[in-house]
Amino acid sequence: MCDRASCERVSCMSITLHDVIRNPARAMLMVLLVAVSASGLGGCAAVRSDPEKATRQYPFWLVQGETIDAQVITDGASIVIVNATTREFTNADVWLNQRYLQHVESLAPGENLRLSMEDFWDVRGEGPNPGGIFRYYKPTPVRLVQLQIDETMPLVGLKAVLTTQEIQ
What we know:
Elements: H1 4-9, H2 17-22, H3 24-41, E1 48-49, E2 64-75, E3 78-83, E4 89-96, E5 100-107, E6 112-116, E7 126-127, E8 145-148, E9 155-161, H4 164-167
């Protein structure tokens, strides 16, 4: 055991047996404060990050041309692109919110293409927060979806459909 003089030299966060006996409520409060602080440290990263999956920068120099009749619907941890046109898009890049990128080999006429939100990445190797039942963070809302066909053509806009949760 330590004497009172040596206990006073220890940091203010230490709790001695003398403190517990003298003021149990204060001791419990300090233990609770330390526990809450420590538990908060593990969940500080609100952004999915993997630098190895970094993509290229969004092409701000390309303007959006037409907006086609293709809807993008958020469905849990994925988005579904409903191509209601007669056009096929091959070897295209899907841009989400002018930030996140995923490459698709083909989007056929009348096709419903499901893309996982976990496969979208940005220039820093960060990804959007997917939705779903077991999510930790608020899902990234899908506001703007565009197709990039090549390096020079204007971007093709798709129609993002708001979910019930986003409307309320």
